[in-house]
Each structure stands twice: as structure tokens, then as C-alpha cells.
Amino acid sequence: MRVIAGKFKGRKLASAKDSDIRPATDRVKETVFNTLQNKFSFEDAAVLDVFAGTGSLGIEAMSRGAAHVDFVDSAEQALHLLRDNIARLQCESLCTVIKADAIGFIETTAKQFDLIFADPPYAFPGTASIPEKIFGRNLLKKKGLLIIEHSKSTDFPESSPYQLEARKEFGQTIVSFFSER
Length: 181
Prior knowledge:
This protein is α/β, with parallel strands linked by helices. The chain is built from 5 helices and 7 strands, in the order αβαβαβαβαβββ. Strand 6 and strand 7 form a beta hairpin. The radius of gyration is 15 Å and the shape is globular. The model has no long low-confidence stretch (mean pLDDT about 95).
């Protein structure tokens, strides 16, 4: 696993030896960031990476100019890998690591973000409710984006506060891009 572009380009990131932590593959990450390239400016962006795991998505955003990334995960092994990756890149001043339940954080934070990544475990039962929670709490700034990596079996309900902007398929993995309606 590596950083694709920006100031940390080519730097390797620590990843899990077991399958409990499933970081976004380089192929998925590259597609996500290529899609964002024409519709989002990372410069000075505030980013939230929930279900952060190793932090590869948030770190990629930092590498491309995000001003700050909040990483949220509850798994001790994930937090250890995330902190290791942050230390490797010496980017501690650009981020905050929060040990918390991702949904609990979403339901209680008062912050707003320009970009939110959510990469929950494929078996997580609450994935379909994530857009409603984020848009319902107004966690995205104007023109902000929510990106969720999920299994092909997850469907998101139609809702008035948000719209599905794009959907990219990689076998059983789907990446959905949401914006305010």
C-alpha cells in the first residue's frame, strides 16, 4: 500500500497482516482520487476519515493538500497502524486520531468537513444509514462530498437531503459519491 500522489507520493504505508482491517486497494484509491480531481480542491480542505483503518484515504487527501484530517476508528489494531503511518510521514500536525465508534462520532460531532470518507466493514449493518446521518446532521460544508466504500449488496435509500453523484464498481466493491441535493 502506497501514497499515490502529492507531497508523500510513493511512500509506503503499513497495512494489516490479517483480514480484519481492509484498506482501500491502490486501484480503488486511485479511481476515487481521479474522480475527485475535477470536482474537488484539496487545498485547505477539512477531511473526516471514519472507519479509518490504516488511514490510507485520509493520508492521500493530506498528501494532496488537505489542511487537516480527523481519523476515527475504534479498533486498537487499526489505531496502532494509523499512528504508525502518521509517524512514518511525520504529519502529526495535519491530523487528529480519535478512538471512537464511527457512528457515535458522526452522531455527536459539531464539526463540518469538506470531504468525508467512510469505509466500514462490509458486514457492518449500518452502512446504508451513513448518508442520512451525515447529511441530516449537516456535517458537510457547502459543495462537500461524502464517499463510501461498500459491498455490492448495500443499497442506499433515496433521500431529499442528498444525491448519489457517482458510483464506481470494482467486482464486489462499490465506491459511492454523495453530495447535497
